[in-house]
Amino acid sequence: MKQAVIVCHRGASKMAPENTLASLEKAIELGAGVVELDVRPSKDGVLYVMHDVTVDRTTNGTGRFSDLSSADIDLLDAGSWFGAAFEGERVPRFDVFLDSCKGRIATYVEIKEGDPAEVRDMLAVRGMLGDAWTFSFDQSIRAEARAKVPDLRRMVLYMHVGSVDRAVAQDAHILEFHEDNLDPDAVAAARRAGLITQMFYAGQDRAVFE
């Protein structure tokens, strides 16, 4: 049986500040196969690794991310909120984050805001397109990715599509289940259809994986 690949959500976010180079390094140290990260652009169009619409929760700044210039964002402390040992950790630019991933760990890019084609090109120029995939909760971004960058592998959620057939119809490559909709028959059908299956679990019960 093929061994499951572990995806670290926002890096090793229980051990280091999420979506930072520190959380990436910790994920690699733990032996994860994939790092999940979120991207959104600054006011002047520079892509960064950042989850929230505002910088308030995970930095020492305030305000909407899209209202801040790259010069402003580069000065933010993205580590102190998590712990004193991470003081001075920065919000990483997407290109810098990818450079740190290359040859070390695969990437799963959730596009919060931004152009899927730009994400695709930044992966491709580094030779990272083959083991990367993307997703967005924004339906318009999902549609744009499907239309503009078909060679960028896309994930869909079972809770969104409702069936394996619909995932296939949307040209998905990966189908993600959650613990509350994980159905062995659906998983088997997805695999027969050539889809990679993925599971998201935010809890701490190891029995879920048995």
User: What's the number of structural domains?
Assistant: 2
Shape: globular
Q: What is the CATH T-level topology of the largest domain?
A: TIM Barrel
How would you spell out the order of helices and strands? EHEEHHEHEHEHHEHE
What's the β-strand tally? 8
Mean pLDDT, to the nearest integer, reads: 95
Radius of gyration: 17 Å
What is the CATH homology-level superfamily of the largest domain?
A: Phosphatidylinositol (PI) phosphodiesterase
Distance between the termini: 14 Å
Described by strand count, sense and barrel closure, the largest sheet is:
8 strands, mixed
Beta-strand residue fraction? 15-25%
**CATH class category name of the largest domain:** Alpha Beta
Q: What's the number of helices?
A: 8
User: Helix coverage percent of residues?
Assistant: 25-40%
**At CATH's second level, what is the architecture of the largest domain?**
Alpha-Beta Barrel
Assign the structural class, choosing from mainly alpha, mainly beta, alpha/beta, alpha+beta, or little secondary structure.
alpha/beta
Poorly predicted residue ranges: none
Task: Sum this structure up briefly.
This protein is of the alpha/beta class. It has two domains: 1-139, TIM Barrel (Alpha-Beta Barrel), CATH 3.20.20; 152-210, Nitrogenase molybdenum iron protein domain (Rossmann fold).
Task: Offer a few descriptive terms.
210 residues; alpha/beta; TIM Barrel; Rossmann fold; eight-stranded mixed sheet; 8 helices; 19% strand
Q: What would you note in describing this structure?
A:
The protein is of the alpha/beta class. It has helices at residues 21-30, 70-73, 94-101, 116-124, 139-148, 158-161, 164-169, 184-192; strands at residues 7-9, 34-41, 47-49, 106-111, 132-135, 153-157, 174-178, 196-200. Strands 1, 2, 3, 4, 5, 6, 7 and 8 form an eight-stranded mixed beta sheet that branches. The protein is globular, with a radius of gyration of 17 Å.
